[in-house]
Amino acid sequence: MHAESGEWRRRFAEEARSERPGLAPLCLLIGAEADPALDEAGIDAAEIELDRLAGLLPFRPGGPRAWATALAELLGGQCGFEGTPGDYQRLESSLLHEVLRRRRGLPILLSVVWMEVARRAGAPVYGVGLPGHFVVGFGPKDDQVLADPFDGGRLLTGADAELLVAGTTGGGIQPSMLTPADPLNIVQRILNNIRAWAAARPERSDVALWALELSLLLPSHPARLRYERAQLLVQRGDFLGGAEALDEYADVVTTVEPTTAERVRHQARAARAMLN
């Protein structure tokens, strides 16, 4: 944990628990955790860039399709925001300040750029978490227009959306898949992506740890994340901290899963034994 991390985490927790959590501030605080070079001025600069981009949009271009087209022309066309397969291999692709700088990123981060720029301009915009591929939606359910920021903002037909879903699940698209994504759910998905990136790189367990710890600051999170954090602490050689975290997790699950709780307490004892 770098010097300012405690302050960033305090602000992250505060923002996540506010009445209307801000997507851009939360994403930028993730970036501050990942990048010690990102300071207050850098966070302000990223917000200013989002404001600047919003100012380049035409004034209220029309209905959902007109908004989606205007965003695609500006961000995808003029500014060159898009994604490539290689972006999945870079941690920067999950960090909003780096996505704004590089104009490259994962689908969900590019969607955050689209949403934040469009929102500032007054568009009826929201995120849509299709299985395996995040996109943005404009307009109400009966007049919904979907755009794919990873593909430069290409407007998606119903058949396009069906293909994206079928490629991931093998099944058809369900109406529930097209509902607006909650900002905190988007943040959790971003942190899950970062953890997945780190899981493929055992030497970056530091990244996996802070992504887990930020996830635990969200007001709602799976209890199992506490167990994963405890295991990671042990793997990183913090046997005492890991053992304490394992015992805490066992206390949480003991009433509903007593067998699991006993197994976890055994793991805690084994971790403490490694200190000898």
From TrEMBL:
Highest taxon of the lineage: Bacteria
Protein family according to the UniProt entry: Belongs to the UPF0162 family.
Official protein name in the record: Protein sirB1
One matching Pfam family: TPR_9
Residues of the Protein SirB1 N-terminal domain: 65-192
InterPro entries: SirB1_N
Organism: Streptomyces formicae
